[in-house]
Amino acid sequence: MNRPNIWSEGREILFEDNHLLVINKPAGLLVQGDATGDEPLSKKAAEYLRFKYKKPGEAFVGVCHRIDRPVSGIVVLAKTSKALSRLNEMFRDSLMTKTYWALTGKPPIPENGTLVHWLVKDTVRNVTKAYSEKHSQGLRSELHYELLGQAGNRYLLQVNPVTGRPHQIRTQLATGLNTPIVGDVKYGFIAPLPDVSIALHARQLQLQHPVTKEAMTFVAPLPDAPHWDAAREFYK
C-alpha cells in the first residue's frame, strides 16, 4: 500500500496522540463523504493511520465537526470512540474557541463587532439564508469579527463563531456586512479564485483534550496559495 501523499507532519498533521488526529485540511477536500463519491478527508485519514501503524483492518476515524469543502484549515478527528463521543458533546455545546481568517474585497463597517442572524439552510440548493429577525425555521447564529488590516488589495478579518452552523461565516459576512469572502461566488463575490477555493481558513482552535483534559491550542499555517501571500505578515 502506498503512503498517502498529502500528509506531512507540521503541515497537514498538526497533532496526533492516542485519541486525536488534528489535520490542516487543504481547500477542495471534503471532510466526510457525500453524493459526489469523492474521497473525503476521513477516508484519507483512515488510510494514513492504517499505513502508519500497519493495521490489518480499517482504522477508526470519527468525524465530530466539518468545515466546507472550499475552506481550508483545522479539522479534529477522533481515533477512539471515547474521544468521538466527548468531542461531539464539546462541539454541540460550543465548548471551544474557534478562530477563522477571511479575506474580503472591502473593509467591514464597523471594523469590529458581533453579528446575530437566524440561518435557514436550503438543502436542495446547498445555500444558507440569513435573517436579521427571529425566523421560525431559522437557527440563531452568532459570531464576533474584527478587521486585522489590509492585505494587499484585500482585507483580512478575524472571525470567532460562537455557534457552528452550515455556511455560517460565509452567509453572515455577506448578509450582515456586505463583505462576501474572496472567491465565494455562492454568497456574492464577483469572481471565483483560480483554485476554486474561497479565502476562508480555520486558523486556530482552542479546546480541552477530551480524555486527558489538557488545555490545547492548534494553529494551522495558511495555504500555499497566492491570494493568501499578503496575509502572512499578520502571523504573530
From TrEMBL:
What are the recorded Gene Ontology BP terms?
A: pseudouridine synthesis; RNA processing
For this UniProt record, give its keywords in alphabetical order, as a comma-separated list: Isomerase
Sequence ranges assigned to domain Pseudouridine synthase RsuA/RluA-like in this UniProt record: 19-174
Asked if the keyword Kinase belongs to this entry, the reply reads no
* Entries under InterPro entries matching the protein: PsdUridine_synth_cat_dom_sf, PsdUridine_synth_RluA-like_CS, PsdUridine_synth_RsuA/RluA, RluA_PseudoU_synthase
Matches recorded under SUPFAM superfamilies: Pseudouridine synthase (SSF55120)
KW Isomerase (keyword) present: yes
In its UniProt record, a GO molecular function of this protein is: RNA binding
Q: What family does the Swiss-Prot or TrEMBL record give for this protein? A: Belongs to the pseudouridine synthase RluA family.
Query: What is the protein's name according to its record?
Result: RNA pseudouridine synthase
Q: Which organism is it from?
A: Hymenobacter lapidarius
